[in-house]
Amino acid sequence: MTVAPLQLIVVGHVDHGKSTLIGRLLHELGALPAGKADELRAASERRGVAIEWSFALDAFQAERDQAVTIDTTRVWLRLPQRDIVVIDAPGHREFLANMVSGAAGAEAALLVVDASEGVQEQTRRHAYLLRLLGLEQIAVVVNKLDLVEFSEARFRQLDGATRHFLADLGLTPRLVLPISARHGDNLAAPSANMPWYRGPTLIEALQTFEARASREALPLRLPIQDVYRQGDKRILVGCIESGRLAVGDALLFSPSNKLAEVKTLETWNAPQPAHAVAGQSVGITLDRPLFVERGEIASHQEDPPRLTNVLHATLFWLGAMPLSPGQQLRLELATAEAPVTVERVERVIDTDTLAPGPVEIVQRDQVAEVVLRSRALLALDEHARLPRTGRFVLRANGETVAGGLASLRDHPDQRRAVGLKSENLTRVDHKVTRASRAERFGHRGGILWLTGLSGAGKSTLAMAVEQHLFRRGYTVYVLDGDNVRSGLNANLGFAPEDRVENIRRVGEVAALFADAGILCITAFISPYRADRARARQAGGEAFHEIYIRADLETCERRDPKGLYRRARAGEIAEFTGISAPYEPPESAELIVDTARDPIDACVEQILRYIATSFAITSRA
Amino acid sequence: MDRLEELEAQSIFILREAVNRLQPLAMLWSVGKDSNALLWLARKAFFGRVPFPVILLDTGNEFPEVYQFRDRIIREWGLTYIDAPCPGAEETDPSLPPKARAAARKTLGLKQIIAERGFQGVILGIRRDEQAIRGKERVFSPRDAAGAWNFRHQPPEFWDRFNAEPPPGGHVRVHPLLAWTEIDVWRYVEREGMPVVPLYFARDGRRFRSLGEKDITFPVPSAAATIAEIILELEASREPERAGRAMDHESEDAFERLRAQGYM
User: Fold this and answer.
1) Cα–Cα distance between A90 and A92 in angstroms, integer?
2) Which residues of chain B does A62 touch, with a Cβ-Cβ cutoff of 8 Å?
3) Domain ranges of chain B
4) B3-180+251-260, CATH topology level
């Protein structure tokens, strides 16, 4: 049984000697193929330079001519205790996409710093990206000590400076080690030129790095890659990203929220196993015919992925064109794909100074925090908890333009609102038609969905409008937040998931009212677009969204229930407008501005809208 | 999971991505150990049935043992086979060194069959450790309409979220074995009990370590007559795998130029 090699990336500023270090390491380990040293010597002589160990890696002509690494490569080091795959990353700013391509798969990093130049722009940028990619196992080599006369003082100075800047990023190097890559000092054997250094050699240090922790103990995530038919069998295939699964396990598929049991683990030319673990590419069959497609994530019922159509993301932007709000991109997370819109850019981080820069536009090679919105529901995890199902790429015009790390932050998980889909429902049709109900009531049924901040005037307007409509002969009823919470939704609190459920129930009840032919007015903050979209889906054509608009300052001044004061005092957590977001409607049927217009005018405006949309007819 | 299990799982994932994302799709099969192992992995990935045709870029100059082995495997494994004849060396880039021109015939044959069948994806069994230029490759590697490899501007590729979108008029090369080394392949051949062309085993003190056309591939000194002996030999060897491939050694840039023009 062979152990997997450790994936090590070598990073640092351009010309600090990354490729030279790896080339020389290969030489020290006797790993260069026979004849390779002569080939390198000849290639170096043709360019009028002393032997360039970097040519062992910089294989492209352009790389050798310009003495610079253009693209990442991988070489094998066979060390006594374990093998290491060394990934050589380009140090030039313009090759950042290549550096990220190399670093994304690494388990440990070696940061190379030039003894005379010290920490430079790309040193900082690379270290920042390592941190972002979750790479915390890091060692620093201070290279080219020969150029500073093997000065201990210079080394001590750089040791301190490097540790200091890494600490700012939250990184602690395991070791800072003085070397001269070109001459092999402190690589395989302690250097006679630096008797003051008593630490391990680089080769000793490399063997202390550890492989990434096993993903088996984490919750199960199996993104479905494809579905194969073999006779009557439907085999779902995919690579287990985390956790383990066994025959007989109940699997929950997200985002469709369907359930089935694992019947078999399929194989070819091998006996069928009873279980499988993270890292394996598997094929499973289920105990019932379930329509599941590529893009779904299978998990256990406990601890499934989150469902959302809004997410916060930390992005590294690799696109040639800048990123700006409103842009449409394709998101690919695990095997799922979905169009997303950039809702806003919250922060741009200058990876050189680590200072936040001007917001709105993100340039190539910048890191930014953004909010993305998708029409379809996405199944994903918090990147900090389950990186492999919490990270994604963005594409535009067929090109990869960004990598991103996802977080829901203050947006609720919408799983409960989606509901488990029972397969055993049969809809029964009413014998009373919608038209005959409209005829009896004199108007069609409908939903007037009032949304807006607390204190915007939703309840006041709803009750006033109800009174007017009732007098005019409408069959009308108001569903109000606090009233509903004392009965139908008495079992719900104010946690994000409870709020989603609160709105889901109101949306469904309002739809039933409308179906019954009644005009239903709802007065709920309903801050999330996703929730309102679901209510609209339940209500269909009968749904009318009315945005009761008032700025936060006005609402806070009104504060009819004293809630803002308490929220400011920290007594109410996640209060909309203060500590939780309000997402204004994008295309409300009607906007009523209570900050600008007096209450009577607002009531009048809504009544006029109703008169045109739900005209009352004289009864026959 | 041990190293071979990890490599196998990753290659199967890549093959399944290719089949899902790129159609029509084909695989190059030189009948050598690597593309043979790849075919074996495809049988695992798709539960016995290889769901794409396999292409031999046929110069007519392969060793007889290669043709015999090919015929046997096609029959036994139920493969859909495409024979892609390669144009003569006189049609290749005249500025290339002579042995490289012989190899460039395969580039032309490949371009022809891609144009004829409209393949959007081609799966190949190349590995990073074979050759430094191949070390720079991506798993999903786009080729433009002329079949050329723009190695200066390779797209970013990370987290196994491969970009399967071919450039306009072009195709995507898929490399499921990039992370494997020569010795990994042999250990896998041994573990799986997979058949290989007998030319790999030493006869009269020589064996083929890498298989190519008759006139530009030479056997290297070796006493390894079994898979176990080949593995032992490789564990100790510092000789490069492609030492017997004449085209790699004519000039410093020969292989880069071949690959930039579309060679495997």
Assistant:
1) 6
2) 152
3) 3-180+251-260, 182-249
4) Rossmann fold (3.40.50)
- Rounded distance, CA B172 to CA B151, Å? 14
Smallest CA–CA distance, residue A333 to chain B, in Å, is 8
CATH of region A6-206, choose from 3.40.50.300, 3.40.50.1100, 1.20.1270.10, 3.30.565.10: 3.40.50.300
- Mutation choice for A interface testing from B157, B231, B245 by most A CBs within 10 A: B157
| Segment holding A447, helix H or strand E | strand A446-451
Q: Is B138 on the interface with A (CB under 8 A)?
A: yes
Distance from the B3 Cα atom to the nearest Cα atom in chain A, whole angstroms: 4
Residues of chain A with CATH 2.40.30.10: 222-299, 307-415
Task: Report the phi/psi class of residue A280: left, alpha or beta, with left for phi > 0 and alpha for psi in -120 to 50.
Answer: beta
Q: For A251-279, what is each residue's pLDDT tens digit?
A: 999 999 899 999 999 999 999 999 999 99
- Whether A620 shows a pLDDT value over 60: the answer reads no
Outline which parts of chain A fall under CATH 3.40.50.300: 6-206, 434-613
* Type of residue numbered B180: W
Domain A434-613 has CATH 3.40.640.10: no
Q: Are B57 and B30 in contact (CB under 8 A)?
A: yes
Quote the percentage of chain A above a pLDDT of 90: 59
Q: Quick check: A125 pLDDT over 80?
A: yes
User: Do residues B15 and B9 touch, judged by C-beta distance below 8 A?
Assistant: no
DSSP sequence for chain B: --HHHHHHHHHHHHHHHHHHH-SSEEEE--SSHHHHHHHHHHHHHTTT---S-EEEEE-S-S-HHHHHHHHHHHHHHT--EEEEEPPPGGGS-TTS-HHHHHHHHHHHHHHHHHHHHT-SEEE----GGG-TTGGG--SEEEE-TT----GGGPPP--TT-----PPTT-EEEE-TTTT--HHHHHHHHHHHT----GGGS-BTTEE-SS---GGGB--EE----SHHHHHHHHHH--S-GGGGBGGGGSSTTHHHHHHHTT--
* pLDDT tens sequence across A281-340: 999 999 998 889 999 999 999 999 999 989 999 999 999 899 999 999 999 999 999 999
Asked if A279 and B11 touch (Cβ cutoff 8 Å), the reply is no
The whole-model pTM stands at 0.82
Structure tokens at B101: 């021109």
Inspect the interface and report whether the beta carbons of B256 and A59 lie closer than 8 Å. yes
Kindly report whether the peptide bond that precedes residue A304 is cis, defined as omega within 30 degrees of 0: no
Among B17, B155, B239, beta carbon nearest to A34: B239
The string of pLDDT tens digits covering residues A151-199 is: 999 999 999 999 999 998 889 999 999 999 999 999 999 999 999 999 9
On chain A, the residues whose CB falls within 8 A of the CB of B161 are 332, 392-393, 400
The class that CATH gives domain A222-299 is: mainly beta
CATH class belonging to A307-415 = mainly beta
Mean of all residue pLDDT scores within chain A? 89
> Which chain B positions have a beta carbon within 8 Å of A76's beta carbon?
129, 181
* Cβ–Cβ contact B133 with A under 8 A: yes
Answer whether B98 touches A (CB < 8 Å): no
B12 at interface of A, judged by CB pairs closer than 8 A: yes
In angstroms, the CA A82 to CA A84 distance is 7
The whole-number pLDDT of residue A619 equals: 46
